[in-house]
Structures are given as structure tokens and as C-alpha cells.
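tool_log.txt
---
The assistant was asked to compare two proteins side by side. It first ran the structure predictor on the initial sequence, then on the second. Raw inputs and outputs are pasted verbatim so the downstream comparison step can read them without reformatting.
(1)
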Amino acid sequence: MQLQRFSFTIEAMSGRITIGILAHVDAGKTTCIEAMLYESGTIRKKGRVDHQDSFLDYDSLERNHGITIYDKEAHFTWKNSDCYVIDTPGHVDFSAEMERSLAVLDAAIVVISAPEGIQPHTETILHALQESHIPILIFFNKMDLPHPEKQKLLAALQKELPGAVDLSSEDAREQLAACSDEMLEAFSEGTEINEEMIRNGVSAGFVSPVCYGSALKQEGISELLDTMDLYLRAPVYPDSFGARVYRISRDKDGHRLVHMKITGGTLKVRDRLKSDEKADQIRIMNGQESVQVKEASAGMVVTVMGPESAEAGTGYGFEPDQREGKMISSISYAIEAPSGTDLNKLFSVCRSMQKDFPELQFVMEGDTIRVPVSGRLQQEVLAHLIAERSGIAVTFGEGRIRYLETIRSDADGAGHFEPLRHYAEVHLHLSPLKRGSGIILESLVSTDEVPAVFQNAILSALASADLSGVLTCSALTDVKISLTAAKGSMKHTEGGDFREASLRALRQALMKADNLLLEPFVSFLLRVPDASLSRALFDLEQRHAVTKTEQLKEGISQVSGKGPLRLLRNYEEEVRSYTHGAGRFSYEASGYEESSDQQTIIQAIGYDAERDTEHPAGSIFCMHGAGVYVPWNEADQHMHLQLKQKSDSEGIHHETMRISEEELNLIMQNESGRNRKPEKNRPQRIEEKARKPKPTVRKPKCIIIDGYNMLFGWDSMKELAHENLMIAREKLIDELYSWQGYTGQKMILVFDGYRQKDSIGSSYDKGTMKVVYTRADETADAWIEREVYEHAAEYDYIVATSDGLIQNSIFAMGAMRMSARQLEEEVISVKKMFLEK
């Protein structure tokens, strides 16, 4: 083996390691994995993608298209290493699927087609791995085909990955010396650059060993595996339990499989994960085959059956939740369904798919469902999934660019929400962040000034809302939102009041701010005959692109650069036309940047924030016994908390009214009743890594009613409930069914099943109202709490109860509360109105 050029005095480290195999499409990635499995003795016969019999691409869509669509797992051992391999999609349409796997990787092997060289998607992959601090190995594949010299391949790679080193080359020591001070010192002194130094460099990301071969012909595979075994360091895991979910899939019987990596401790069958969810079954996947195990220890990649609320990014044990990646399409498409389709039903199916595929951020705009999709292939896969789950055949309309909005400078805003029997006031400070930061939430006030429960309610409301800007109503990003003051009322504050005040404060601050429109940019690669170069450069200049030109080979020029997606998305067709098919144009997303055509885009969209009643910037004050709307530019003088701005060096200060412990207790009794267990104050800072906010959509309302609480809380029901509970229950159902028919809101009526021994729980639909009986060991408030938690993204909830069983978590999630008395008054009022008619 040529690697023996160095003297390896330290034995390679053993242990479990999770390796991702990543590549641009058609680089031979899946063939490479087949070769690794074959070389290690895991499989006896190699499959081929073109023969539709590969070990990992077993899905029907994958075999039909000859590409990887979904992440897959395999497992093998090689010398000292116990390897869990994740095969990721190479097609750009499925970049989000690839990105999700990064969260569980210890290292990555990037496969590059030697004849094709570095592609735009290769650059995207390398940048993502470097940003995630994942050690990288490189395998130049298809070396059996005509290709540039090794030196040219390596030089091109080093432009994107400076630490790329060919350890088999004559000048390997010189290459390594340029990677770290430790190796430079060893080289200068003429001493040995040993294995441990190289391993340190690989772990730190300074060194990326490069191998060459042909996976199809099984050439260079053992060298690749040896390099992996020698230089990749297995992590040391803690004894405490931790796990991170990176994917959700379903088996052939439709069972939900949660793919996770155990990052600490041990997970056993029947262990509790979160709330009432347990690990019912644990499997180790190897292609489409699996083996059930009783427990999984740290470092293992497994699939678990049982957790129904898990999503990609969910953390268990000490692992925090991580939501939303960066590789979400910048173009959204309208879903077109056959005439007569129940769009609400279709939207419900689509939103349920979002738990499995977080990048599919479905929104309902009027009577249109929209979703960001990366390309035609992903559209085909999505249509297939929708048909499987709903039986509805859908197509996709024309794509629309997804813009983002941010601010250029700091701004302050205040929101007041005080219709009759409600009260909340919130003050916020906004400050701009660097590109790609997403939204960061924090509190600048102490719990002595504003109680923790109020702060949590405000921050949770902002965290769960789809925040939009005031230029085009596009999603807001790269903004730090700081809570600077807040006030509630002893008698009138309801759960949703702080949500209303918070969002109004944000909108008012944005109306005052210097706003920016961001648009998606792409990195592109254009290859054209020299005769077409001047035309190409002129076109790209007109499209506001920044370019760099080089001579690729005789007669062919290559232009690389960056420009707005809006102007480049259809340029490929023009290139084919003016080069008569000889030119090639490809691009990759490179993030969002300030638009140079901001006013033109804003005018074309035609959004008017002043007229947007769904996202009001003004506040509501109680005047003369009624709620009065005050426009945003007049609201400051009516605020109950005075905003005092000091010099920039002193920052911004708000006078915040103190609330006594007695008043807080009364408010909490009004909101949530007595807590069964005291809770510690939650952290005052909520930070979301590089979160790209989702498009804003008005969510439908849903009222959940604690049935027995109404029976014993309504004056009209108390007596009958004490005499005959069953008759009273049926009467309540009829009363609420009639009222629901008038309001048209989605309604769920919940009765405690624990009152009935051995109840397994049940539900039925009465028209459009759902009646639920919980199981024997579950109270109505526990059922309601879980329902709101799992579906908060789909509905604005109103919870009708007065018995103190609804916990603070519902209040903090922004669910509005309605007392038994208020609901009874509403029902009686509607009933009286109809009787008068």
C-alpha cells in the first residue's frame, strides 16, 4: 500500500463511527458504497444502479430514475472501525434530505467524478461540511475513464478545500506542512510527520486525505477504507442518554420509523423518550433489511418505532431540538388539485407530511396551497407521496420566487391589546443580524420586573409565529428581537393576549424601521464555446451577475460567478439556443442577499402593510368601555408603559411596572388554575440557529372544550349534571353542536375517560364537531395539552375551561383561554338571537 510511505507508530483508534457518503449526481456514490460493502464482506454480490439491483436504492422511484432520493443506512466493519454509513441523495433537488444527515455524521466521504471534476453541487456539499465542522475524506471516482491528471484534479479541489492532500504523492510532506503549525514545524526540523499529527489535522478539519480509484471496478476501495480506518477518530460519548433524530420514514406496512443516532448512554426497548412516548421497537437497518435489538448504545444509528411526535431535528435526553436547515428551495409552487377536491383535507394531509419532510413548508394562501420545491424531480416525488397518502393526484403550477425581509438599523415597537376583558402590553427592540443568522429572541428584563410566565408567553408566541415583513409580507429573517418591557392585568389578561400584543409590537417596530428586501442568489457555472463568450458575458452583466472567466480547454471557456436567481433561473434555455446545444449552464443556491431592484419588486408584488388586517401594526385600547383601534403611528402616546430612549452608548431603557406576587397568583389562577407541579423558570433566551422563517399564513381557529368542566361550571347545566350525568352530557353535546353550526369553527369536545374504569378511549364525529373520551389513565387537560402541542402550527387554539387543569405550557404556547362562564354566555347569546328571529 502506498500509504506506508509514512511510519505509523501509533495504532489506529477503534470504535463506532458514523460516515456520510456525499456526492453530486452521477458521481458513482451508490456504486462506491456497494464496493465498500463488498470489500468488507458485508454483501457477497455487488448490485448496480443501472441494473436496478443496488443494495441501498431499493425504492421504486429510486430504481426508476437511477438516483438516490432518500437517506439510507448500512453497517459494516473494517479492521478497527465499526462503521455506520449513511447514503445521501446526490441530486440537487434533494439537498435538504442530504443536509438533515449532517447532524449525525462523525465524518464524510465526498465522492467526485474525475472526468467531470468539481461541480457547483460539490462546492455546496464541501461548504456545508466545513460549516458543520465535519472531517472530510475525498474519493475521486471513475479513474478508469478519461480524466484530467491527478495534479490538476487536486489543484481544482484545493481551491474549495485547501486542506486536501494526496498522501500517496511524492510531495505529501510538503502538502501536509501547509496544513498546520505542528506539521510545518516537523517538516522544517526534518522530523517525522506521524499518523497522530495527520489524525489531529483530519479531526480539526485542517487535513482532508484524497484517494483515487474506480468503484465499478473495485479499484482503490481498500485504500479508501484503510485511510478511513487510520485517520478518522471515533467520538467519545457520555454516559448520560442522548439521541438526535435526523429522518422520518415508513416501512412497507406504513409504520412510522424514527431514524436517530444515539449520542450518549443507552436506549432500551420500552424506555420513555418524551411525555408518554416510548421506544416500542429498535431496529438496526442495513439497506432494506433490518435486525431488531433490545437496546442501542452510544454511537449506533438505529430506527425506533413508537415516538409519534418526533420530527427531523428532535433531540432526546441532553440533545436539544434543532429545527429547519438552510437548503430550502427559494421557489414555491402552487399545488393544483382536481376540481371538487376538499382543499382543507388535502392541506391537512400535506401538513402531516411536513413532520416527515421539514423542508416541505406547506402554506394555504386563500384557496391555494403552496410549497417550496427544488425542481421537477422533487415535484414528481412529492406528487407521488401526496397520492399515496390522500388518493389525490396533484400537479404543480408556475413557480414563484420566495423573498425574505430584514432591517438595516435598530428600531423599537410597542403593542397594546385591550378589547373588553383582555389586557396586554409588550415593548420590543429590534436589531439587525448578519446574513444567515435567522431570528434570535431574547429578554432584557428580569423576572422581578416582568414575571417569568409572562416572558415565556411572549417569547414563545414570537417563536411559534410565522413572522413577516412590511415590504412584501415575505418572511422575516436576520433580526434579533429583544423583550424590553411588558405588562399584564390581574383581572383581564388571557393566554392569547400577549401573543396579540407581541405581534403588534413587532409590526409597529418594522413600520418604523429601515427595511430591506432580500432575494435568493445562486452560484453558477457556464461553459460555452469561445465564439459565444462575449454574448455570455453581456447576458450575465445584464442579469447583475459577478463573473470570473477562465480557459477550460482549447475552444471552450468557463464562466463562474454569482447572481440573483430571479434573473438566472431560466437562462439555461437561452444558453442552449445561442450555443446551438454546445453550452452548459448550472447553478446552486448561495443564500440571500440585498436586492438591487427592491422598489421594482415591491411595486410588482403590490403589498400594502397599512391595509393588512391579518397582520395589524396598530394597537387596541379600551376607551369609553369599548376596544378602539389606534394606528401604529399614533399608538405610542397611548401606551401605558413609557418608552425612554437614552444615548446610543447607554442603550435603550424602558420603565417597567412591577407586579406583586399576589397579583401574579391571581392572574395565574385566572389563566391556568393551580399548577400540579411547580416549574422552574425557563431560560430567558431562545435562539434558533440560522432559522429561515416560513411564509406567513393565517391559521384556522379551533376551540377545545373540557366537557365535564362545562357541565359543572354552567349555571344551566349544574343541577341536571348532579341528577343525571349521562343526560346532562348529551344535552351539552347538543347545545354545543348547535352553537358550532352557527360559528363554523372547528370544535373538539373532550370528556375525562378516567371516570370510567378500564376505558381505552374513543372518539366520534357529530357533524363537523369531534367528541373525545380519553382513556382511563388520562385526564382531559393532559389530552388537551398534547393536542395543542402537536398541532400548534396548524391551528390558533382557544381552550374553554375553568377548572385549573390546563397547564402553563398551553398558556405559553399562545393558546387563548375562554372560561366556562364566557362560553355559556356565547351559547346563550346565539340561542337567543335565533329564538328572536
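(2)
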Amino acid sequence: METKAVQAAADLDSARCRGNWAAIPDLAKRYKKYHPDESVLDTVACLEAELVEYLQRTRNGNNRQSFSGTDAGHQQDTPDNIYTPSPIQPEKLQTFIQRLQDITSNRNQELETPDDRQAQFAKIILSRVYYETGQYDKSLEALQNLALNINDATSGYGLVLLVQARTIKGICYEKQSNISAATDAFGAAWDIVEQHLDQKSEMLACWIEQSLYYGTLLRLRTGAPPQKTLRMMRAYTRLVGSHWPSQQWRLNKQWVIFRSYASYLTKLSPQAAVAELCQITETMRVLFRAIQSTCTKKQISARAIELADITVTAHDTIGWGDPVYIRQFLHFLYQAKEHTFNSPSITCYLFFTLVRVGQFDEARYAFNSYMMLCGASDFAKLLETDNVDAREISACATVICKRMSVLQDTWAEIRDKTIQVLLAGVTLHGNHYADGKTAAIMAELAVEIVEQLDIGKATQATCYHSCGIAHGILASQCDSPDTRSDYHKRSIDCLKRAADYQDSWQSWYELALQQAVVRDLHNAASSITRSIQLKKDHLPSWHLLALIYSCNQHQDKTTEALQLLETGVEQSKVLSILGDIPSEMPVESWTGEKTSSEYFHHAESYLELSMSQIQLLEKLEGPEAVLGLFPELFTLHSKLSADLGLQDASLSQNGSRKPSTTSTSTEESTVAATIRKPSYDRPRANSAASSPVPPRRMRSSSSDDARSDRKPATTASMSELHPSRGLNREGSKSLRKKSIHLIDVGFARRIGSNNSQGSSRKNSSSTLLDRSNTTSTTTTSSLRRSSSVTTESSMLSLFAPSPSSAQVKTSLFRSTNIFINQQRERWYQLLIKLWLLSTTTFIHAGRIEEATKAVMEAEEQLLLGQLNDANVWHQLGVVCIKKADETKVEELRETGLDAFKKALAINPDHVNTLVDMARCFIDMEEWELAESHLDRATQGYGWDHAEAWYLIGVCHRQRQDMQRAKECLLYALELSETTPLQPFTLLPRFVN
């Protein structure tokens, strides 16, 4: 009997906790049967069930409407205006009031009997009746002197009633404008629930949701301390995302809380809140999908735009966090695009997010869509023009401005977004696609818009800054002398105006770079000095100043140029930066975050600077003195490849680096320090024997095993630096079967042979050439077999071969991410440049055999990277010509010309090839051919090539055109005085 009594009590309590009001009458009768001495609990339970059912009918709800309905009234809730259902007329609930008063009156406060204890809980039901009728004073009065047994009020439905009492008290205080007391009541409700999180039920979830909802909004209304406000927000979020009954958490209320939560975190702007903000916005995206079934299409569209606005505004302030999260947001934007009809905001956010994760091709489509939505229907026509037409751009800007002015409520926001999109488009096309014309048109359009709308100086400065960079790129890609001059002038004018409007180091750097390109070195030095004063840790700025000092007109400042490079490395702390590369970063950012492109630029800038150091040292001490430095440079490239995640497909699809076991050690610093050591601190070396690293013996065998055994002149072997060092080369060979050979076998044999004359050389070439007709592929190692080693201490044996072998896997991996592919190709090109630089140094040192092998290594990188580079063919031609001069074999000269022709087949405007080929024609007294090549060079991209102008002057002198010859020779002399060791154009643009 006792067991049944306990079970009856448990069943009744459970039904009340679940809100199963239809079952209450039967369960109350059963309870009364086993508890005949009690009269309060069963009566109060039945009264409460009747009350709830009446409220549901009155408010047109279903079985759970009053607790878990669509709560449409809360859609527009704000901290200052919280929706409350209209009160019920008191007379309609008078019967409930009277019956509850009869139960609660004349009861013993000592709680001696079960009825006494249940009568106290009945006061809470009475308070609720007063609350539902709008009698807030009486509701609070009913809760006064409430005496509850602690054991009864901390579990089951007793806990529900306690939380209900505190929630009702808080709402009543809010209605009476006693906000302080209201927030205390809501806080007390959460306090008791937090202590008993193991107690879970539908009705408890209903009332604590009410309490946390009101408590959060009221704390926002009063500007409560962040700790207290965030406590309520986090509690709400915690319960929504936990195992609590989800149907009690109303969808619109969740939206209001999460929206307020995100905005609040944005205002606080702590960097530690990034993860929390990501969680909130991700939860809102889940909520967005859930809420669609209760909304109209128009409401869904509004919600999608609102969520996108919230997310972007918040993350632009705090930061975007993990790229994985950014890709999730990108997925949401594609969904939102389906629910919104041509929303400029969604398209704008889509463009920026695509750029942020490195999906540049898709970003260009999003850009074009946004421009169409802005009314720039003629924008596509602008891109089809041959030149940048100012009148058409002005007309297009006028159309956009008129379109924006129609949107009176949001025109300022649309205006700002349009300018931001245009400027980001300039960076996208100018920096990542090297499309100067498109970038210049976009920049001019942005300038025209800000001028027509008379926007502030800061925005104008940014637009002119981008316009100057874009025209500089366009000028470098222009082959028309007159047009190119106009673009250079426009670039400098825009950058000067940007610097006048805003004294930023970026504008001064870009201005200095552009002035250096047009050989205005005095003003360039002044501008870059100002840039360095504003930002001393920007490595390319120091590099630019050093290149200015490397020109012949500063012949006595070569040592100072070296010191500048050393200072730049120290000031920029580039070694520390490259020694601690995060594993997950966005590709681009407009909110000051670290990005993948930033670290790639650091690494590239450091490698380029190291190459300039070697060239300056060679200028001071001669080529033999610097040959020993190349191993360290190759080792540096290899380690940076690993640290940047450029080996074994270790880049994630968003362009960030996956975690790598390879870390930058003190060895790298030692290597770098060795490279950076100034020449004036080191004794002059006149031979390989006196170089910092003794040469190693190179095996006479040219097999792959021989190459694998070669080590750089460092304490660590290349196999230690690259786990993939021991890969078999089948992957490389299969790749070659699919690739067009850049160097044919017979050609390679001719330039590699040691025998300058005699039938043995001819027979060897002929045999090998015949063999090439029956063999589909020939590896670079087989090409080397034709070039035997003349000395056992070949300097080439010091060079690190590991980048070529360590990156075999990388060459086979092609990503769908444009940024990843761009960086891989760029990194291959840097390695090729290292080999070509070593080739040049070997040539200067008179080591033609080593130069031959070095250029073969460069060719191997072309195959591995699946690239085409005219520089390799040009350098191959130079080696052939040098060897022809040395051996007096005319066949080698013809081979060199063949190499030049192949270089021009890849790039018809390759300036160095045109000039060197013209020199060969001059030696052969083919003056017309020489002049045609030189005209093509000087009128095109070689307008600033000193030797090209000198040689064309020689051609004019041969034709007895002395006036023209004099002009060309004087111009060549002027250019030679302002030509740096490395071209200024290798320095980066779009710095930030």
C-alpha cells in the first residue's frame, strides 16, 4: 500500500513537470485514493490544470501554445520593449482566485502537515492568476511571506513552482519599473536552477527560459556590468544547446537573445571572445534553418540578411577566427542567397568571404553580380575597352550614385559597401591576377564615386592609394610608350594625393616604389625614408632603399646597401615571424588578422632580400667569394617550404597551413645569419677553397642515387630537413611523360659536352639524339649524364638538391583553391630563380660546367612545378653562348640561338632574351635582325633596359645615324646609372 502511495505521488508530480494537464484529474483522484488524509495537493493540481487549459483556449493556442508556440509577438523585442501577452479580464478568473484563496487562508506557517506545505505552493499558483490578469501588485503580495520547505522546493514540481514564483516576481517588478528588483529575481531563479541542473523537465525549461530571457534583456537595458550580463546570456545559450527539452525554448526568443548576445560581444570587443562569437553565430544559423517553417518567404529573407549583417559586423570588429568557421559561414551565404532576391548585402558578403578563403574565381563572379545590383550594368563594357576611358568611368559612377541615392534609408551603407567592394576588387585583380587594366578601371571608378559623393579625406586617400598602385601595375604591362608614360604619371599623381590626404607609410612606400620604377631615384629615396620613419619593421621598404643604393650612381654605397639590408632584417624581426607560423589562417583579411598571404609575403621578401645580399657581396668581393653562400640559401628555401606547408599537399583548401611537425629551429637562424653576414666583416675570398664551406666531392655517376647523396654545406643533411627526401622518382617520371619537354635530348647533349671538337662529340650527340627518338621521356638526371664533371671539387655539389626531390609530391597535387596554386607556383618560381642566380654567378666565375648543371636543375623545377618560364631558356642560351665563346664551337652558338627562340616562343616580349639575341646578331653582323629585336625591346617592356638602348645605339652608329646613336647611347648611360642589381618590380605592391 505504501509503495502505491509513493508511486501515485510520483506520477502526479511527473505529469505536472511534463505539463501533461489532461492526465491530471485522473492522477489526482488516484493520489487522493492513496492519501485520504490530504486535501490540498490533489485540489491545487486540478485547479492548475484547469487554469492552463483555460489560458490556452483564451489565447487561441494548442496543447502547448502558451509555453512553446511560435511566439510571433516576440519577433520585434528589444531590451527597451519586451512583448507581453494582453492580460485576461480579472472577472474571468475570479473563480480560480476565490478557490485558491480558500485553500491558502488560515494555514499553519510552521508547515507541520503536507497540506500546510502544499498550501504554500498554492500561493504561487494564486500569484500566477493575478499575473495573468494584470494585477501585478496583488501577484507580488501573494508571494510575500512565502514559506517553503527546502526539500520540497529543490526537486520535482516543487522546484518548478519555486522558479515560477521568482520569474513571475521579476516580470511584475519590471511592469512596475522596478528594474533592479526584477533583475535580482531573475538572477535568483537561475541561481537555484544552476544548483540543480540534474532536474530537467518541460515546465522547468519553460519558466527558466522566461526568466533568462527577461533577465538578459533587462540587464542590457540598464547597462549592467558585463560579468552579470554575460552570465545570463551564457546560461541561456548553455541550456538551449544542452539536453534540456528543446520544444520549450521559443524560436523567436532565441533569435532575440542570440542577436543581442552577438551585438554585446561585438561592443565589448575582447579578442578572447572570437570562439564564443563563432559559437553564437553558428547556433543562429542552425536556428535560421529551424525557423523557416514558421515564417513567410519575406520574413525568411529578412532573417537571412539580418543574420549575415550580425555575423559580418561582429567578426569585422572582433575577428574571424578559424578558417573552418569562415567556410561554414560561406555555406550559409550560399543558402541565404537562395532565400533572398538579389540582395546587395548578401552578394557583398559573399564576395568578401570568398576572397577571405582564397576562392578567387568565385569571388570574381560575386563581384560582377554585386556591380550589376548596384546599377553598373555597363561595368562589363568598361572591362572590354582597350584603355582606361575616364568619360565612360565617370558615366558609370554617376549611374551607381543615382542608384544608391534612391535607397534613402540605407544609401550610406550601400555606398560604403560599394567602395569597399571596389577596393577589394582592385587588390584581387591587381595582386592575385596581375590584371592591371581591370584593377585600374575599378580603382578609377572608386575614385569617381568618392569625388561625386564628396566623401571624407580618409576614404579618398584609400581610393587614390589603390588607384596609384593599379596604374603602376598597368604601366608595367603596357607596351605602348605614350600610354605607358601616361599611366606612370597617373600612378605617381594618385599616390602623391593619397599621401597628402593621409600620411600613411603604405602610400609613401608605394610612391617610392613607383618613383624608383621611373628612375626618379632622388625622390624615391626621400619617399621611402619617410615610409621607414612611419613603419620601421617593413622589410621591403629597407630592400627598396638598398636597391636604390645599389645603382651605379651610388657606386660607393654598396657597403651601405648591405648594412641597410641587415638593418631591415633586424627591424622587421622576420626570422621570429617566420619561426612561428600559425597553422590556420584566412587568406586575406580586412580586420587586421594574420593571414596566409602575409606569411607568404614575409617569406618571399626575405628570400628576395637574401638574393640581393648575395649580389651585393658579389659586386664587392667577386663571384668566387659568394659561391659558398648558395647552399645556405637553398636550405633556407627548403625549410621555409616546410614551415609554410608547401610540401606534400599540406595546405588546407582555404589556403592556410595544416599543422606540421617541421618547426623552425635555431639552425635556421644560424643559416640566415650566415647569409646575412656583411662582406666587410669577412675576409675577401678568391677561390672556392677559401669560401665559408669547403666543397664536397661530387660522384662521377650521375644517377639519381648520386644526386640523393649530395648534401648542402650545413650541419643538417637535406634528408633531415625533408622527410620525403628518399621518395622514389617514379612520380616525377610519370609526370614527365605527360609534360612537353622543354629541353630536347640532343640540345642538352650539345651544351653539356666537354669535348669542343672531334667526331667523338658528334657521335655522342648523334647517338643520344637517335635514342631520344625511341624513348618517350628522359629525366633531368639523364641530361646530366651528358655533362661529365671536369673537377672533383665541383661547386655545384655543394648546392642543396632537396627542394626538387622534396617537392615531387607537391607537384602532383593540384588544389581547387586558386590561392594555393598561386603560392605553389610562386614558390617553384623562387626556387628556379635561385638556380638561375647561381647559374649567373657560375658564369661570372668562369665555371661554365657548373653553370650548365645549375640551369639543368632550374629546368627540372619547371617540370616538377608544371610551369613554363622563358627565363630558364634564356639562361640556357646564355650558357651556350658563353661556352661557344670559350670553346670556339659555332654549333653551340646556334644552339644558344635556338634556346633564345624557345624563350621567345614562351614569352615573345622577354626583354633579356631579345637583348642577348640581338647581341648575337650584332656579333654575326646581322644588323637588321639585331635592330628589329632591340626596337621590340625598347618600345615594349624593355624601355628601361640600359644595354638594349646601348646596343640599338650601336646599330644606329653602324648605319651612320650619328644623332640617333648619340641619343640612344646617352640614354643608355643615364639608365645604367639608375639600374639596380635586381629590378625594382620584384618588390611587393598592395602592402598592409
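---
observation on (2): Residues 927-992 form a domain with the Serine Threonine Protein Phosphatase 5, Tetratricopeptide repeat fold (CATH 1.25.40). The two ends are 82 Å apart (CA to CA).
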